[in-house]
Design brief:
Helix content: 25-40%
CATH class of the largest domain: Alpha Beta
Largest sheet: 8 strands, mixed
Distance between the termini: 22 Å
Shape: globular
Radius of gyration: 18 Å
Number of strands: 14
Structural class: alpha/beta
Number of domains: 2
Order of helices and strands: EHHEHEEEHEEHEEHEEHEHEHEH
Number of helices: 10
Strand order of the largest sheet: 5-4-3-2-1-12-13-14
Strand content: 15-25%
CATH architecture of the largest domain: 3-Layer(aba) Sandwich
Length: about 270
């Protein structure tokens, strides 16, 4: 953990799963009240998440957000107020087709994400149940190759560690031009080369014309490392792995203990 510093901010970027959301995928205790407090001081709130736009609809609605969303792990920048996609970075089509073939060979689950929904061709009952709880907008399709023409912007590799490692080894051996980030204990986000939450945070700062040192970030997992390194002030959740905590300026309570509300009060000094 870094040393705590006294700073003031113009914007706070908050991760969703494991941070703003409890383990049961509901809004963290006290989060709405704390967000309203932050907004009342003139500080903007933005979401920065691995979810696509369809996956954050209930969050935006429940919290009454009207700012920017950095979605799909940094691949999308979207303005809620104007319903405008400001920036997006689709996966390269040829490499994505090869990725589909790799996952079929390794019997690994691959999910392709568009702006509004996610598609997969291999039914996994446990994952489908988890996704329903998380309020993801998913579709089972007969052939993921047909989804490529819809310009997916993120892929997620899900499965047992052995299947994931075998698929990753093939991706590396074929030198496919992706950026890879661990998004959970058994999942890997696959994005266009150079795209991650750090690049998404920089795009957000550029659009809002806010220096990075005037932006605070809150997150909980290894795919948040890039935004922690890009940010000048970061808060890790108590449920975060030690590697992320080591990059943080402060450690909050866990997501199930109202950690986001605590973090936001620390940021505005209330």
């Amino acid at each position: 953990m870094k040393n705590k510093q006294n700073r003031s901010f113009d914007l706070v970027a908050i991760d969703c799963d494991g941070t703003l959301l409890n383990t049961d995928k509901t809004i963290s205790d006290g989060a709405k009240e704390a967000i309203d407090q932050v907004k009342a001081t003139g500080v903007e709130i933005a979401l920065i998440t691995g979810r696509n736009l369809g996956g954050v609809t209930f969050i935006v609605s429940e919290l009454g957000l009207d700012g920017l969303i950095v979605g799909c792990g940094g691949a999308v920048l979207y303005d809620i107020k104007t319903s405008r996609t400001i920036e997006w970075h689709p996966l390269p089509k040829n490499e994505t087709a090869e990725l589909i073939r790799i996952c079929r060979r390794q019997d690994a689950l691959l999910v392709l994400e568009n702006l509004e929904y996610s598609a997969y061709e291999k039914a996994v009952d446990e994952k489908e149940s988890q996704d329903r709880a998380a309020k993801f907008n998913n579709r089972k399709v007969d052939d993921l190759m047909q989804v490529i023409d819809e310009n997916p912007i993120k892929a997620v590799l899900v499965g047992e560690p052995e299947a994931i490692q075998a698929a990753l080894a093939e991706i590396e051996s074929l030198q496919l031009s992706f950026n890879l980030a661990m998004s959970g204990p058994n999942s890997v986000d696959i994005l266009a080369k150079g795209i991650n939450k750090g690049s998404g945070l920089r795009a957000l700062a550029n659009v809002r014309n806010i220096p990075l040192e005037r932006i605070a970030v809150i997150g909980d997992w290894l795919n948040d490392l890039d935004m922690f390194k890009a940010s000048h002030f970061s808060i890790a959740m108590g449920n975060a792995p030690e590697e992320l905590k080591a990059e943080a300026d402060l450690i909050a309570p866990t997501n199930d203990e109202g950690g986001v509300a605590w973090a936001l009060r620390e940021i505005i000094g209330s």
